[in-house]
Amino acid sequence: MLFRLLFLFAVLLVVELYAFQAFKTLIKPKWMLIAYALISLIALVFIVFSFTQFDRSVGQTKQTLFTLGLLLLVYIPKIVITLVMLGEDVYRVLMGGINYFINHDNQEFLPSRRKFVSQIGLGLAAVPFLSLIYGMTIGKYNFKVIRQQVFFPDLPDAFDGFTFTHISDIHSGSFDNPEKINYAIDLINEQEADMILFTGDIVNTHAKEMHPWIDVFNRIKPYKYGKYSVLGNHDYGEYVTWPTQGEKDKNFEEIKDLHRQIGFKLLLNEHTFIEKGDDKIALVGVENWGKNFKQAGDLNKAAQNLKNKDFKILMSHDPSHWEHEVKNHDKNFHLTLSGHTHGMQFGIEIPGFFKWSFAQYMYKQWAGLYEEFGRYVYVNRGFGFHAYPGRVGIMPEITVIQLKKGEKLA
After folding, report:
1. Could you tell me if 141 and 383 are in contact, meaning their C-beta atoms sit under 8 angstroms apart?
2. 145-405 belongs to which homologous superfamily?
3. If I label 338, which of 58, 96, 171, 394 is the partner at 20 to 30 A Cα–Cα?
4. Residues linked to residue 357 through DSSP beta bridges, in sequence order
5. The whole model's pTM is what?
6. Separation of alpha carbons 134 and 141, rounded Å
């Protein structure tokens, strides 16, 4: 533990020194350098103090959200500067060695720092700095409606054109703007879908986080074919220390009841049939199952008595479930709906052309539609936010999925 703290301190010291060198190269007034140093010190002290005050019995709070946002806002740009300045130092050492040992130049061993390199470093650092500010002020509530058609040759005829709205990862404990959440609910209601499905993480940890938002989410209109939901990994209270097991169990029961309070039918390792005309499809809902998270989901129990030929939509919060168990399951789950990844709330998306996020190094399926063996999983980018109080490039999502009968046209 001590070694880790010393290593972290050393890294922060190097980052701060390089960032200061970049500013010193460009800024000459002494008072501005002193002001920069003081602001950096105050930010560091606040960040360290806030993390030392973290209470595992409480979990994430508005202060921890702000602190993590500040940490990223301060140090990601400085790390960018450090990488640029470090690259220049490698160049300076190489040139110094060449001049000293090969050219036998008796001038200073290290060439002086070049002003334009510091300008490049600061210019590059401005990109994540401004992006993170945008993400924390605008991006986190920049809701996008994404429409997706999915084709199935064996879709029952009556469900050709059937639509449903898919939301995931509400994380109500992170909300701080009722106007924006009401706007998102209006967007949901405008979609005129046949059904709405929610794939888990209604809170960060505690049931009480949702209490101020129950009336808001009760504004979601009734749907002809129902409102259904499942649990996510955050709904089990696993990430805090509880005084007693009884209190943890009580919180879990209250979280499950939240779904009833906002008009959703919570599916707990079970299925139901959605009937339209003479046809029906099976809607299957499992508790959370994640490769690296809680594995409470029981797919076999949820699909008990279902036939292979039954058309099935599965709700499972974590897309790693699809990768490790669902896609190869002999019951043939046609379409799985997930969330969980949030797309790391940071990335680059150019619809139809390019999609990148750190999430792709952790999850094979992390945002959007994926297919293998004629079976599909759709990973929603999330409605809310968690940890970092913002979104950059990967925006909060309301998905409208339309089922179509037949083969997808090339």
Report:
1. no
2. Metallo-dependent phosphatases (3.60.21.10)
3. 58
4. 347
5. 0.92
6. 11
Cα gap 19→77, rounded to integer Å: 9
Closest CA to 85 of 39, 125, 118: 118
Residue 402: which residues within 8 A CB-CB, separation 6 or more?
147, 148, 149, 150, 161, 162, 163
Instruction: Identify each DSSP E strand in 65-213 by its residue range.
Output: 144-152, 163-167, 195-198
Longest dimension (CA), the chain: 92
CA-CA distance, 410 to 406, in Å (whole number)?
12
Please give the Cα distance from 113 to 96 (Å, whole number).
12
Edge-first strand order for the sheet with 195-198 is 144-152, 397-405, 163-167, 195-198, 227-229, 265-266
Confidence of residue 86 (pLDDT cuts 50, 70, 90): confident
Give the tokens for residue 321.
């479930």
Place of tokens 């130049």: 105
What token pair was written down for 4? 């880790």
Digit-coded pLDDT (tens) for 249-278: 999 999 999 999 999 999 999 999 999 999
Which H or E element spans position 376?
A: strand 375-379
pLDDT at residue 108, rounded to an integer? 61
Average pLDDT across the chain, whole number: 92
Domain chopping of the chain, boundaries: 2-137, 145-405
Give the pLDDT score at 263: 97
Q: Which of 225, 219, 171 is nearest to 193 (CA)?
A: 225
Neighbours of 103 (CB within 10 A): 10
Q: How far is CA 33 from the centre of its chain?
A: 37
Beta bridge partners of 354: 350
What is the chain's Cα-based Rg? Answer: 26
Asked if 226 contacts 265 with a C-beta cutoff of 8 angstroms, the reply is yes
Q: DSSP state, 346?
A: B
Q: Are 199 and 229 in contact (CB under 8 A)?
A: yes
Mean pLDDT across 175-191: 97
- For residue 52, the one-letter residue type is T
